[in-house]
Specification:
Keywords: Cell membrane, Glycosyltransferase, Membrane, Transferase. It is found in: Cell membrane. Pathway: Carotenoid biosynthesis; staphyloxanthin biosynthesis; staphyloxanthin from farnesyl diphosphate: step 4/5. By secondary structure, the chain is of the alpha/beta class. The chain has a single domain, classed as Spore Coat Polysaccharide Biosynthesis Protein SpsA, Chain A (Alpha-Beta Complex), CATH 3.90.550. It is about 35% helix and about 20% strand. It is built from eight helices and ten strands. Helix 2 links the parallel strand 2 and strand 3. Helix 6 packs across helix 7. It starts with 9 loop residues before the first strand and ends with a helix. About 45% of the residues are buried.
């Protein structure tokens, strides 16, 4: 467990982004709404890890009030890890909860309050579920097959960088996000569990995400949907 469960005074949200000027504004708006629900004594910060962006992602993020880290890796594992390092800024890990989502996703109003509740309950990490918000960009059969195969129940086996959280202490013990082009979320949760951490797999506060055809990570969620055709 991550020490005093009542001692979480900060939530650091990290959003990796590669050329996300179109979808990032909705993501950041949803985070602002969620942050407004958190008790005032808890500080919420949002950092966009802008990876190899050639569009207006950086300007969009700054205009929305988010902190920005610019990197050139074209690797989501590197982006998430660098973003968390920048968000922590060398501060002690104790009392910090890390929350991860994606630039093409929108979190629900209770997302951060739910994560704070998980943290104060003593969970080391949380794996949440997702639902697709724009099936219209995919053939009808993709939606049918996805809903048949995806089982969003408590205790589920899924891992989504779009809906993941953990204490900064657990993150450091697990070695952080590995520099993987995809599957970095699966690897991190496995490392937390292997180190004796308590991982909650829940359907509470599911995150809406895009069904876009061109994904940002090879073999990521967009790639998975493409295999369902």
């Amino acid at each position: 467990m991550s020490g005093d469960p009542a001692g979480f005074g900060r939530i650091a949200v990290v959003v990796p982004a590669h050329d996300e000027e179109r979808l990032l504004p909705s993501c950041l708006r949803s985070l602002r709404v969620a942050a407004a629900e958190v008790p005032p004594e808890v500080v919420v910060t949002v950092l966009v890890a802008a990876d190899s962006c050639t569009d207006r992602t950086v300007a969009v993020a700054r205009a929305a009030g988010a902190d920005v880290l610019e990197i050139d890796a074209r690797n989501v594992g590197v982006s998430r890890h660098a973003g968390i390092a920048a968000a922590l800024g060398g501060a002690r890990a104790r009392g910090v909860w890390l929350a991860s989502t994606d630039a093409d996703s929108e979190v629900p109003r209770d997302w951060l309050t739910a994560h704070l509740g998980f943290a104060t309950a003593g969970w080391d990490a949380v794996a949440g579920t997702v639902f697709v918000t724009d099936w219209g960009v995919r053939p009808a059969g993709v939606r049918t097959r996805f809903l048949r195969e995806y089982h969003p129940a408590d205790g589920h086996p899924h891992a989504h960088g779009a809906n993941l959280g953990l204490s900064a202490e657990a993150y450091e013990r697990a070695g952080g996000f590995a520099p993987l082009p995809t599957g970095e979320d699966v690897a991190l949760l496995a490392a937390v569990a292997a180190g004796g951490g308590r991982v909650l797999r829940t359907t509470r506060a599911a995150v809406g995400t895009s069904a876009r055809v061109r994904g940002r990570a090879p073999g990521g969620f967009a790639g998975h949907l493409s295999l369902l055709r």
